[in-house]
Design a protein that fits this description.
This protein has 420 residues and is an alpha/beta fold. Helices cover 34% and strands 25% of the residues. Strand 4 and strand 5 form a beta hairpin. The protein is globular. The two termini are 43 Å apart.
Amino acid sequence: MKVVVQKFGGTCVESEESQLLSAERIMEAKDRGHWPVVVVSAAGRLGQPYSTAELVATVTRIDPHISPRELDLLMSCGEIISTVAMAHLLSAKGYDTVALSGGQAGLITDVYHGQARIIRIEPDAVLRALQEGKMVFVAGFQGISERHAITTLGEGGSDYTAVALAVVLSQKGQLPFGDALEMTPLHIFKEVDGVMTANPKSLGNCGPKQAGRVLSRLSYDECVEMSGLGADVLQHKASKMARKHQLPLMVRNFRQSEVTGTAIGAASAPTQPGKATGVADIANLALFSIKSDNPRLSGQLSEHLDMERLTHFVMVRESGEARFAVKREKYRDVIDIVERMLFIRGMKADMRPGGCGLVSIVGENLRGEQSKWLNLGSQALKEAGLEVFGTIAGDLSVSFLVNEEQRASTVALLHSRFVL
């Protein structure tokens, strides 16, 4: 039996038209002789019924403070609704289907509500359904703890669900009654043709000559780096898991059956010498700075932010100052967490709750050349009159912290100068 895991994002199921197009992609896989295991996100965005944001708004209108456990229970409903709807749609078209929650599909997580991590998968229910000739639909973004509490996997968590399922199914090799199980590359369906060299929304009104282009392929290392720096490629935890297990995957447009999309695997993106693969950006970061002569302080605070599972970036330390940029999570009060962390340590910080953007140049050509690229990027931004508050060097990237109001201009400049 050839099995393909397909993941459909929220825009792929937000309307009747979108659901029908997604159903076409599922039926095309079946026509090719593949058995689909379909991971579904919650439908749509704020303002649309049953979107995660709208579900959260139903309780935060009452009071903005809600138990993380109850919030996870509520947020899991969006994926369950869209999963049942898609399973029912394919059933109405004559296919034998079954819809499973994350817990029913065997995704066992730790108990860190809102940012849970998968600790193992018990795929017996999925394997049994495949053995019975069913299309399997799994609610993304969620799992269940060993104490049977429903948990969620963080923003983009349906990617994590899909990668984890694909990994564990590929390791099984056979169905319960001994039939061979062969996996094809995981397909991540979005509303774009693949991974872009820059976020089209960040490029704004740039002309066609400066517009982003679709990358035909991306290496695991590039995918991990870009996803960690804000690119809408794949959730960061999912990209790291795919790299660890060398899981091949495709990022495709759910509206286009003939567009192949971007292949993510061992080979790096095709780039010219001296050019980067792409530019990634993160909006509205919180920034805090602490004066201290303790050289270990940055590492200690970074470890604590890791324990809180907050995406953060440590700026280059200068003149006894430790500077941190922290991503504002959708469903967690990041500023409260940071202030509590500092208060416990008897520290005070210069706090800027928002208004900062991080823009990064990413690519295999930056490996071992970070200092050169930092100098090139800094010089380009200085010449354009764009102020930089801090820089970071990654394995395959260099990043610049700028005013949020200048983030789009910074993306456009770095993209035109170092990618196109």
